[in-house]
Design brief:
Length: about 325
């Protein structure tokens, strides 16, 4: 039953039958109410022969500093009744997480609770943000959205300094498979002026049987309504321009025209998987800004706003995305 139900619950551990060349990781982004603290924590597992291990990565969105805590693979465990994973004395679920990390140089401790979560609704036709591609068993990388936006409460202590996340905002997504794409652009923010407004876009070069193509998926959630735009919905990218730290994208999606402009700030170095091995270094900012305009195809303005404390990655040879 678990193997069947996890298809419509991407937040659950998906690798219960995988033993080799496999990775899975959850991305917990956390921003304090004042915006003073912005941290992401990424628990995961890498299954590659003798180098198999579990891990927790941390990135400071303000400084770009990153930390990688490595554990034996057997320290990773999961529940077969829902989204709950443990790595040694660290716990992550849809209700929150607790940290007890100490590598002799850096130390994290504390707990965060999650409430008022906005979820991406799954259906038989669309079992998650990937749409029908989720049913394909040979994809290089799968993507899931766990929480579009939620409230945070609690505090984390880092090297003796306490960080209060009470009434903060959070976001959770995840990836699993064998490798991340050769190139991609990823953008995410749920820190607009209006609470509960959230946006994510991922554009990537996707291997498909004996060829590759540029695919994308994303959502914009505002006032209780979620707009999904993706390759599988028939949406198209009509413009994609980028520089070293900016990206400009225009998407035509069903009845909408979505204009996106992102600007990077501090970058942190994170480890990413290649055939399950965490030996690729990518750079991510979680202190970027993203400006969005949503219009009807007739030109009527539906929404315009700027999201702060944004996550942004521009990885690989971006020219192959055009």
């Amino acid at each position: 039953m678990y193997e069947w139900r996890k298809i419509w619950n991407p937040e659950w551990f998906q690798g219960s039958r995988r033993k080799e060349k496999y990775f899975e990781g959850w991305y917990f982004k956390n921003v304090s109410q004042s915006g003073e603290y912005c941290w992401s924590f990424i628990p995961g597992v890498s299954l590659v022969g003798e180098n198999a291990h579990s891990f927790i990565q941390a990135i400071n969105g303000k400084s770009g500093e990153t930390y990688y805590f490595r554990f034996p693979a057997e320290d990773f465990s999961f529940s077969n009744k829902g989204f709950e994973v443990r790595i040694a004395d660290n716990y992550f679920s849809e209700k929150g997480f607790s940290l007890n990390l100490d590598d002799g140089k850096n130390k994290f401790s504390g707990s965060i609770s999650i409430s008022d979560k906005i979820v991406y609704k799954a259906t038989l036709r669309r079992p998650g943000i990937m749409g029908w591609y989720r049913y394909m068993p040979f994809m290089e990388c799968y993507h899931g959205v766990v929480s579009l936006d939620h409230r945070l409460d609690g505090e984390i202590t880092f090297n003796g300094g306490k960080m209060d996340f009470s009434n903060g905002r959070g976001y959770i997504e995840k990836d699993w498979g064998t490798s991340m794409p050769s190139s991609w652009i990823w953008m995410q923010t749920n820190h607009f002026q209006e609470a509960g407004t959230s946006f994510m876009l991922s554009v990537a070069r996707i291997p498909w049987i004996r060829r590759t193509f540029t695919g994308f998926l994303g959502f914009f959630h505002h006032n209780g309504k979620t707009i999904t735009f993706a390759t599988y919905t028939g949406a198209i990218i009509s413009e994609l321009e980028y520089s070293q730290n900016t990206v400009n994208i225009i998407i035509k999606a069903n009845n909408y025209l979505i204009e996106i402009y992102g600007k990077n700030k501090s970058n942190g170095a994170l480890k990413a998987p290649v055939f399950g091995e965490m030996d690729r270094v990518i750079h991510e900012s979680i202190d970027a800004s993203i400006r969005i305009r949503v219009l009807s195809l007739g030109g009527n303005l539906i929404y315009e706003g700027k999201g702060e404390s944004a996550g942004m990655e521009m990885v690989g040879n971006l020219s192959e995305l055009k």
